[in-house]
Amino acid sequence: MKNTFESIDIFAAKRMDSKDKLKSFRNEFVNNDPATIYLDGNSLGRLPNRTTPFLENVINNEWGNDLIRSWNRTWYDKPYRIGNKLGRIIGAKEGEVIIADSTSINLYKLVYAALKLQSGRSKIISDSFNFPSDLYVIQGIIKDFGNKHKLELAQSEDGITISDDAINKLIDNDTALVVLSHTAFKSGLTYDIKKITEMAHAKGALVLWDLSHSAGAVEINLNDAKADMAVGCTYKYLNGGPGAPAYLYVREDLIKKLESPIWGWFGDQDPFAFNSEYRPADSIKKFLVGTPPVISLTAIEPGLDIILKAGISKIREKNIMQTDYMIFLINRILVPLGFSIDSPLDSSIRGSHVSIVHPEAYRISKAMIKGIKSDLKVIPDFRKPNNIRLSVSGLYSTFEEINKAILLIKEISDLRFYETIAIPKEIVT
Hints:
36% of the residues lie in helices and 13% in strands. The chain is an alpha/beta fold. The protein folds into 2 domains: 10-30 and 311-420, Aspartate Aminotransferase, domain 1 (Alpha-Beta Complex), CATH 3.90.1150; 52-308, 3-Layer(aba) Sandwich (Aspartate Aminotransferase, domain 2). A 7-stranded mixed β-sheet has the order 2-8-7-6-5-3-4, with helices on both faces. The chain has a 4-stranded antiparallel β-sheet with strand order 9-10-13-12, covered by helices on one side. Strands 1-11 form a two-stranded parallel ribbon. α4 packs parallel to α11 (300-310). It starts with 9 loop residues before the first helix and ends in a 15-residue tail after the last helix.
């Protein structure tokens, strides 16, 4: 059911905040600058208060005091233990998720492994909305496989959405793999994982999902969807911090069938046996490579604990209400000024960010960060050539903040304050 809103007035926003069932979770995060409104959680989530003590314990006690003994006491199991905790957020069973490397490296592992398993098929399907790095990884693998595979991209008719039918039309009996971002990084289009997976499975294809812009903000149930594989980062809505390691998921029955293309000692059956010949683990462990980054890995856990405590369904419910409210304000306040919405209006196919388009998007976004008042600044996210992404988090964003942010954009536009900001050559299109 679509949310309806009574007014653009700031007091209406405050009334919604007063009724917010998740408002207490805002106190779980560091906010040393209340005058700055943060709407860029889809690039980097806020710092949980508990992260610093977690890291202090690792550094001062586990590293400082226990030294090498900490490997046996707590470090060795972290990729699996924290992976299992993350799995509860994305609808995976224990033993199906592991924390490792970066999203791109994990994507490489799984695309390579899937193509090898599907050796009789030559087509890879993705879409024009996919994150460029994902497409680069696929292109590199195609080259490594001797250019025997073809990458086909589903296209959008409106620049905002891509229909399920457009994906389905490309899938045939020669399709080895479908690789899609669950939530598109620009428009916020969110696919139905179960429906797309069923389409692919009907033709014998596997599906690999990039959950980077959805995990922690959108309800996901990989097991229910019979999803094959997934990857994702932990520094966006999961609030794991900059450079935090990524994760990968493989459905239980596929783990033994897939062979990781990167062999390393932590992927061996017994890393500390130091055998000269590699023996891959028969579990999700086989997708580990080198020594886990213990400190940055540790930083992931507090954010996961907050999400599990709040409940992903409640977070999603609030995210929908807040993005609906944002769209309501944009239509009432910004569209008359020449802005347009570049995200789905239907919340069922929209993630947790709303994109707006304006010819002066770059300079407007910089003006928001700089502020036109000493007491109010907004941090959005600019994407070339003319896209401003505004992200909400049900854990710490408020309706009042959304209201103030949209009014700030209006003021910047009305006063043409953006004209004081120079455009770098690399931005000019």
